[in-house]
Amino acid sequence: MHHVRHHGFARHYVEMILAMLAGMLVLGAALRGVLALTDITYDMSRRPRLVTLEMAFTMSAGMAFWMRRRGHAWPGIAEMCGAMFLPALVLVPLLSLDAVDPGAAMAWEHLAMLPLMFAVMLRRRTEYGA
What we know:
globular; 4 helices
């Protein structure tokens, strides 16, 4: 495995964002493909809680894969994945109460992930190459 410290903090942050996007695109497309074969309707307007959780999962999976490849230990990976799930854990109850619009929930989820991820990286500064 590669050693994490050889990359700069900013570079690692960008890599993590790209890994999240890759997870979202690849795993999300695979999930939607499987669901299409089963005729299950899967979209934000009909299943906002499920889509919100799926987004957190697929982004976390891509990021966890990349972090492990870069030599991170499982506790740090779990902490980073927790930062990805925290917005969903706040938004799902709000969606259930109709307190937030599904489209807005998706935007809030993505916007909240970035500073939370940054906070985890700051907490483990030496691990992320700062």
